[in-house]
Amino acid sequence: MSEIRGAVELLQDDEIAPDQRRRLLGNIAGNARRLSALVARLLELARADVALHKPDFRSMCALRWPLRMVQSSMLVKFRSQAKS
């Protein structure tokens, strides 16, 4: 990414030679392809990770009632403190 930024900064110079401009554009294109491949691979890994670690919704539902009880008791406590 830093190479792309550096090349873009150099390309913004109006006095750059045409052959150097072509070389920098080629570098940017190559780096962009590598970044695209990296992002594609990261997405594949993320999908694989999600497939391996699917959430157990039954367990999550079993926690709903205890969490609501904690939430309710905390609300009561905070409201009583706010009135004090």
Secondary structure blueprint with pairings:
Layout: H1 2-11, H2 18-52, H3 57-83
Helix pairs in contact: 1-2
Task: Give your account of this protein's structure.
The chain has 84 residues and is mainly α. It has 2 domains: 1-53; 55-84. It is built from 3 helices and no strands. The chain has helices at residues 2-11, 18-52, 57-83. Helix 1 runs antiparallel to helix 2 (18-52). The longest helix has 35 residues, at 18-52.
| Tally of helical segments | 3
Query: Mind summarizing the main beta sheet?
Result: none
Outline the low-pLDDT stretches.
none
As for the number of domains, it is: 2
Number of strands: 0
Rg, Cα atoms, Å: 27 Å
Rounded mean pLDDT score:
83
Q: Give the % helix.
A: over 70%
Amino- and carboxy-terminal Cα gap: 56 Å
Strand % is under 5%
Give a brief rundown of this model.
This protein is mainly alpha-helical and 84 residues long.
List keywords for this structure.
single chain; 84 residues; mainly alpha; 2 domains; elongated
